[in-house]
């Protein structure tokens, strides 16, 4: 078997690394069934980067959305909090967001139930065919990327045109559809608050189609045999991400050159500013780098809702919002489309440098 340059790099200087074997090991449940004690060489996405910071020094902002539509004074306070958190952290948690805890818990349970079904049952949804809208796999780019992720994922494009409900797995079908409706409403509310935080009309970002589409990506992180590793840091390529995580935790954001834990809080949702929102806000809102720590004790579930029109990918041009520009604040990014930015992002996602920087003028 011919050994590629990628294989050589992963295996050091040797040429006896069997990448096909590790690819197979990362398919379905085979990894756990074989009883591996260490991560395979194909997974350098796990990096031994421990956190030495004082965990009491920083705490991700928590924003209570109670009263945003009833009290003008309270709404202004919330808008100010959103502005401060988005400008400094690029991330915050929200409570009293309108989605019942029963829906959040049901979504987590549905994802866990699906992933813990027998492999034979899940085979119906396992595919790497990108023409299939609802897809379950280990790594969507496993055969192209030199690195791998220690997680199973269920990908579901939900808007603007959702698939036929029959395409969703029975184990999480009803709750997925209901959660999608609820989180879409929350997304619109968040875009209104972010618009106001920028000094714009509340509907400005919505009118730009920032909330026109969203995908839901359900992750199931199996217990990792090596507890000292973490997923590679990255930002999101979309406008906005709303993340639901279970009680296990492990999410961290990069703030002031340190990794800060995002503790799981019952009923709370994490909101991350995406690259495209930083681009159109001309750096007024900041995209956040984040990662997930490997857990060697128990599986972890998270559900990310990514707001951007990915399917079909939007060809609308996006650049810094003209109302935010002036002689003192000229545009610092060139225009792009969701399609072009996402394509470039996917080709560079494992680079250490921010993809967004390549779009600076």
Describe the protein in words:
The protein is of the alpha+beta class and 361 residues long. The chain has a single domain, classed as B-lactam Antibiotic, Isopenicillin N Synthase, Chain (Jelly Rolls, Sandwich). Helix content is 27%, strand content 17%. Strands 1-2-9-6-11-5-4-3 form an eight-stranded mixed sheet. Strands 8-7-10 form a three-stranded antiparallel sheet, with no helix packed on it. A hairpin with a 2-residue loop joins β7 and β8. The N and C termini lie far apart (45 Å). The N terminus is likely disordered.
Evaluate the radius of gyration: 20 Å
Mean pLDDT: 82
Largest sheet: 8 strands, mixed
Low-confidence stretches: 1-15, 27-35, 43-48
In DSSP terms (H or I, runs of 4 or more residues), the helix count works out at: 10
CATH H-level homologous superfamily name: B-lactam Antibiotic, Isopenicillin N Synthase, Chain
Task: Assign an overall shape.
Answer: globular
CATH fold-level assignment: Jelly Rolls
The N- and C-terminal alpha carbons lie at a distance of: 45 Å
* N to C succession of SSEs: HHHEHEHHEEHHEEEEEHEEEEH
User: How much beta, percentage-wise?
Assistant: 15-25%
When the domains are counted, the total is 1
Give me the CATH architecture, please. Sandwich
Helix content: 25-40%
Structural class: alpha+beta
Strand order of the largest sheet: 1-2-9-6-11-5-4-3
């Amino acid at each position: 078997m011919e050994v590629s340059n990628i294989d050589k790099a992963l295996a050091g200087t040797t040429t006896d690394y069997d990448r096909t074997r590790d690819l197979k090991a990362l398919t379905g449940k085979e990894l756990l069934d074989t009883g591996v004690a260490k991560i395979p060489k194909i997974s350098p996405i796990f990096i031994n980067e421990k956190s030495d910071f004082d965990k009491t020094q920083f705490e991700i902002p928590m924003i209570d959305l109670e009263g945003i539509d009833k009290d003008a004074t309270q709404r202004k306070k919330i808008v100010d909090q959103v502005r401060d958190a988005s400008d400094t952290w690029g991330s915050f948690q929200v409570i009293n967001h309108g989605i019942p805890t029963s829906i959040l818990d049901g979504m987590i349970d549905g994802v866990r139930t699906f992933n813990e079904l027998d492999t034979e049952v899940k085979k119906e949804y396992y595919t790497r065919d990108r023409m299939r809208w609802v897809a379950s796999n280990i790594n969507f780019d496993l055969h192209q990327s030199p690195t791998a992720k220690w997680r199973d994922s269920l990908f579901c494009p939900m808007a603007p045109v959702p698939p036929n409900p029959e395409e969703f797995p029975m184990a999480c079908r009803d709750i997925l559809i209901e959660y999608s409706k609820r989180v879409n409403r929350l997304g619109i509310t968040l875009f209104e608050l972010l618009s106001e935080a920028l000094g714009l009309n509340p509907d400005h970002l919505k009118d730009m189609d920032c909330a026109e589409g969203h995908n839901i990506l359900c992750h199931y992180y199996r217990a990792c045999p090596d507890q000292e590793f973490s997923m590679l840091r990255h930002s999101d390529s979309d406008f906005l991400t709303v993340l639901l995580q279970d009680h296990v935790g492990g999410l961290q954001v990069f703030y002031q050159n340190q990794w800060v834990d995002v503790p799981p809080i019952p009923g709370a949702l994490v909101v991350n500013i995406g690259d495209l929102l930083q681009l159109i806000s001309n750096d007024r809102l900041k995209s956040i780098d984040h990662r997930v720590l490997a857990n060697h004790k128990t599986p972890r579930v998270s559900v990310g809702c990514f707001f951007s029109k990915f399917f079909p990918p939007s060809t609308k041009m996006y650049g810094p919002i003209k109302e935010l520009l002036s002689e003192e604040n000229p545009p610092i990014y060139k225009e792009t489309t969701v399609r072009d930015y996402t394509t470039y992002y996917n080709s560079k996602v494992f680079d250490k440098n921010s993809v967004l920087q390549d779009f600076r003028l």
